[in-house]
Specification:
Elements (H helix, E strand, L loop, with lengths): L4 H9 L19 H43 L1 H9 L6 E2 L2 E2 L6 H4 L2
Antiparallel strand pairs: 1-2
């Protein structure tokens, strides 16, 4: 029975019952060539699936953004037409507002 992590670590890293160490053939912690190939295939497959889902997510976000932009453009066309037909009036020159300041003498007091 394993009582703590140190004992577990010692059990895993110790020599096999036959007296061979970790470098010996058939050691449980050593991966064979077939296991390494299978791990590479699984890794590449997971990467391909993740890439496909990321491209799909990008396409969905791009489509939703285009739909929102089109909706706002369509709703704002009436405002653009109104601004074109009735430009804002007033005395505005390059963003500056000109106003008259009256003194007490000009008000008639």
């Amino acid at each position: 029975m394993i009582r703590n992590l140190k004992e577990l670590f010692d059990t895993v890293t110790s020599r096999t019952p036959t007296g061979r160490g970790p470098g010996a053939r058939g050691y449980p912690g050593q991966a064979g060539v077939l296991q390494k190939i299978a791990a590479a295939v699984v890794t590449l497959s997971l990467f391909a699936v993740a890439l496909m889902f990321s491209v799909l997510l990008f396409a969905v976000v791009l489509t939703a953004g285009a739909a929102v932009w089109g909706y706002l453009w369509w709703k704002m066309r009436a405002v653009r037409r109104q601004m074109r037909d009735n430009p804002p009036g007033g005395l505005v020159i390059e963003g500056e507002v000109i106003r008259e300041v009256r003194t007490r003498d000009e008000r008639g007091r």
